[in-house]
Design goal:
It is a single chain. This protein has 489 residues and is α+β, with helices and mostly antiparallel strands. The protein folds into four domains: 70 residues, no CATH class; 165 residues, no CATH class; 66 residues, no CATH class; 82 residues, no CATH class. Helix content is 30%, strand content 14%. Strands 1-2-5-4-3-8 form a six-stranded mixed β-sheet, sandwiched between helices. A three-stranded antiparallel β-sheet has the order 13-14-15.
């Protein structure tokens, strides 16, 4: 508070010591200045400003001032096999309690192997209410939102309304925070180390208006999980500090000063949902997103079938979600050879999931973990699901080698399932050759060339996509540049 009222130098009414340091440190972060460059700039400014001035003597003192604002972070040592964190009662342990491996790379030099960065959530929430403008915005969902039965804000969603109905004491004070949690892997070194995967964990307060809650300044980084490999199912080990804070915010709350109302209140928070892609969904939720029961919403009622030749699961129960009188329900030929009269499965509630987990015994993590690569996914999942689906459609449509889903094994699976008789592979007697009957979407080379011509000349609004024409070679019928993929049509 003293720094906030102390002029930068006598007679300066524009900057205080605190405001100038914050602006300068903000520039350092945005422009990625090194500590040495920042220190040299700092020394120059101290010489340029008239004496006496209130600038800190060094970068170290500057960081101490920033830390006093409650925006510091703590470093927590982690087992190299993702078994445990060295915190609380295990803070002084020298080796992992589960796998027995040493805490350090070298016991002599005490070099740590893995460090989790934890950015405490509670002081950052308290700072939201230290600004009268932000404190007012945190009530927007309750006081200014127009309830016109349209989905314009998360407060209009069924999940939000059901939560308010189940926990009226929590929803009584609109200042209590509803949160979303997002996490995914990325490579901080760009192409210098393509296998490195670091996982940030971000929480978003959804009390704010829709034009604010999804802006970067209002997304709060709370954990930075180190690489070089993704945490996989062991991500729960690294979430422990965050979970402890969320439990405290839910069970007891924390005293917080509201600048807008000029009063102290008990701030509580809840986690409503998570935001992630499908593989990360499996890591965060604990429900496997691959295998026979891969669809979480259907839970144990997922309809799947193992393809004998394709060596993967297929999921054929999607017609259950159609209206009872939909024509696809009675269409045998286009689907699996059967009519579908079942109703859609009930979406399990949180209570249903807890009942399923009652009495379950979980093996210790860290040794028999999933196969991890450095790409931020289980091995083999290189790109997002949306891109994979698009690639599969284009690859099948144009007959791209190694990309098409219409191949011999797929046709043999149709034969094994006794459906689509007209598409079964035909073996020529006396010759070691298999013929695949053409399908209605089969394109000739001329058709493929027309497709590439259209794709090379397509125009979209500025900023939506890169220049596609650079990736298409019409005469050679080649598409390249999509994640270094080069395909001959």
């Amino acid at each position: 508070m003293e720094d906030a009222n102390l002029p930068l130098y006598p007679g300066n009414k524009r900057f205080t010591k605190l405001s100038f340091i914050l602006r300068l440190y903000h520039i350092k972060c945005l422009c990625k200045l090194s500590d040495k460059a920042f220190s040299l700039l700092f020394d120059l400014l101290k010489e340029a400003f008239p004496e006496p001035n209130s600038l800190p003597k060094s970068l170290y003192e500057t960081k101490k001032i920033i830390k006093d604002l409650g925006l510091n972070y703590e470093k927590i040592d982690a087992c190299r096999n993702d078994c445990m964190l060295y915190r609380n009662e295990t803070a002084n342990a020298m080796s992992c309690y589960k796998c027995g491996i040493s805490r350090y790379k070298s016991d002599d030099k005490k070099i740590l192997v893995k460090i989790l960065c934890h950015f405490p959530l509670i002081p950052r929430f308290q700072r939201l209410y230290m600004s009268s403008k932000l404190s007012s915005d945190m009530r927007w969902h309750h006081e200014e939102r127009v309830d016109d039965q349209k989905l314009q804000h998360p407060a209009d969603s069924k999940a939000w309304k059901d939560f308010d109905r189940l926990y009226p004491d929590f929803s009584e004070d609109p200042r209590n925070i509803r949160l979303g949690l997002a996490s995914d892997g990325f490579n901080p070194f760009k192409m210098n180390s393509s296998k490195h995967s670091t996982w940030p964990v971000v929480v978003i307060p959804y009390n704010l208006p829709p034009w604010m809650c999804m802006k970067a300044p209002n997304m709060i980084l709370t954990l930075l999980i180190p690489g070089p490999k993704q945490p996989g199912n062991d991500i729960d080990i690294y979430l422990q500090p965050l979970i402890d804070e969320l439990k405290k915010l839910w069970d007891t709350g924390v005293e917080t000063y509201d600048t807008y109302k000029k009063e102290i209140f008990k701030l509580c928070a809840c986690l409503l949902w998570t935001i992630n892609d499908f593989p990360a969904y499996g890591n965060l939720s604990g429900w496997s997103t691959k295998g026979a029961l891969a669809y979480p919403c259907c839970n144990k009622n997922t309809v799947s079938r193992w393809l004998k030749y394709g060596r993967k699961h297929c999921y054929l129960g999607h017609r259950r979600f159609l209206p009872p009188d939909h024509k696809f329900r009675s269409d045998r030929r286009s689907f699996d050879g059967h009519e579908e009269h079942r109703v859609q499965p009930k979406t399990p509630s949180g209570f249903d999931v807890l009942e399923q987990l009652w009495g379950a015994q979980f093996p210790p993590f860290g040794k028999d973990n999933i196969d991890k690569d450095g790409g931020g996914r289980e091995k083999g999942d290189v790109m997002h699901i949306e891109k994979n689906v698009c690639d599969s459609i284009i690859g099948t449509l144009l007959g791209m080698k190694d990309k098409t889903k219409d191949h011999v094994n797929a046709r043999l699976d149709l034969k094994d399932m006794k459906i689509r008789v007209d598409l079964h592979p035909k073996i020529i007697e006396g010759r070691d050759k298999v013929i695949l009957p053409p399908v209605y979407y089969t394109l000739s080379n001329e058709d493929k060339e027309v497709f590439c011509t259209i794709l090379s000349g397509v125009k979209v609004p500025d900023g939506y996509v890169s220049n596609i024409s650079r990736n298409v070679q019409v005469k050679e019928r080649i598409i390249s540049g999509m994640r270094a993929m080069i395909v001959t049509l």
